[in-house]
Amino acid sequence: MIKVAMRIAYYGGDFFGFQRQKNQVTICGVLEEVFRSIGIFDLCVGSGRTDKGVHASAQVISVDIPEFHRDFDRLKQLLNTKLYPRIKIKQIWQVESGFHARFSVKRRGYCYVLSQKYSPFWVLFSHFYPLKNPLLVQESLNAFRGVYDFGAFMKNGGSGCESSVREIFHAKLVKRGDFYLISFWGNGFLRSQIRLMVGFLLEIDKGNLGIEDLKRQLLGEKIFSVPAPSNGLFLSRVDY
């Protein structure tokens, strides 16, 4: 057997999240069904468990494959033919036997897309919200940088982790044409953490909350906990 990593992209709107679930169509479930059809019977491990409706441009999975699939270019083409059109294998490479797609990660990057103009063609991949005060949002993003217990920015039900302490290395707002991109880089994220952080930022932009409220929630006081819609969120990068 050969242990490989695969970098994949997917449209999350048609799936009930990444992780396999009984009686639900998930990214992992579809991948494993296709894997079995070509003689790969190992369970895949993902770098992160994206929620229902969340997309990915650079999710990473690890899986053991038989020797007869050593031609990675041919394997990628075969898989993409079967996974089309909602999931795409972008890259396959061999890794050490101890590699783990989730626990070997050094940092993860997420991007939240805000469209500034309404379009029915954009709504599947962005959240329509005309930003009012970009400078205030960037100032608010600066408050997220550092090590915090993000328990107040976690959806009920937890994330399967013992600790809710995480470090955010980077939090930035950039303008790209008719879109604002909010990007976060960290050593890990809790269940719905990004969407809850973005939801808080949009309340600050509306004038309903302030940066001091954000700092209080970072210290554990739950003030606002309505997540931004899932369609604007992408898992955009995973580094090992």
UniProtKB/TrEMBL annotation:
The EC number(s) this enzyme carries: 5.4.99.12
Listed A to Z, the keywords are:
Isomerase, tRNA processing
Keyword Protein biosynthesis annotated: no
Q: Which enzyme class, named as a word?
A: isomerase
Q: Which residues form the Pseudouridine synthase I TruA alpha/beta domain?
A: 9-103, 143-240
Q: Which NCBIfam families match?
A: hisT_truA
- Family in the record: Belongs to the tRNA pseudouridine synthase TruA family.
Q: What is this protein called?
A: tRNA pseudouridine synthase A
